[in-house]
UniProtKB/TrEMBL annotation:
One of its GO terms (biological process) is proteolysis. The lineage of its organism: Bacteria, Bacillati, Actinomycetota, Actinomycetes, Micromonosporales. It is found in: Membrane. The keyword Protease applies. Residues 85-142 form the NfeD-like C-terminal domain. It is a multi-pass membrane protein. It comes from the Bacteria. The chain crosses the membrane at residues 7-35, 41-63. Keywords: Hydrolase, Membrane, Protease, Transmembrane, Transmembrane helix. This is Activity regulator of membrane protease YbbK. GO terms for cellular component: plasma membrane.
Length: 157
């Protein structure tokens, strides 16, 4: 019966991790599953609790720094960016009018929904824009021509 309680606790912690995405609760879930293994082997409750505490602590000490190191963005770590990070900073072609509410652009052959980074700007089809940021599946774009755009948004105070 103790093993079932530990398994339920491990599953609850794993599901809670899905909603927090901190990679913290899952490490305690690992400890709960280890304690379930100890319970299945017939260990007394205090040993199960000790296994839970030791495995959770070891997970935090060993796994957490590794996870944090790999979670850093490619730009922070000096690696070649990929995915959304590779799209940020690239140019796009406006296919449907882009304004503060909606739009459609083509980035490296892929269609992306887009919005203007500056709500006062809008771009007509055929215009070249620069992807400043990606939020979800929407690219926030800015005028690509630096000479006519004035300053880029990073330079604003």
């Amino acid at each position: 019966m103790d093993a079932v309680v530990w398994i339920v606790l491990g599953v609850v912690l794993a599901v809670a991790e899905i909603f927090t995405t901190t990679l913290f609760l899952i490490l305690f879930g690992v400890g709960a599953f280890a304690a379930a293994g100890a319970a299945a082997l017939g260990a007394p409750v205090f040993v199960q609790a000790l296994v839970f505490a030791v495995v959770s602590a070891l997970s935090l000490v060993v796994a957490r720094p590794v996870i944090r190191r790999h979670r850093r963005s490619a730009l922070e770590s000096g690696e070649q960016p990929f995915g959304v990070e590779a799209i940020e900073g690239s140019t796009a072609l406006v296919l449907e009018r882009v304004d503060a509410e909606h739009g459609l652009v083509k980035i490296d052959g892929e269609l992306w929904s887009a919005r203007s980074y500056d709500t006062a700007q809008s771009f007509d089809p055929g215009h070249r824009v620069r992807v400043i940021k990606v939020r979800g599946a929407t690219a926030l774009v800015w005028q690509d021509d630096v000479s006519s755009a004035g300053e880029l948004p990073e330079a604003r105070g």
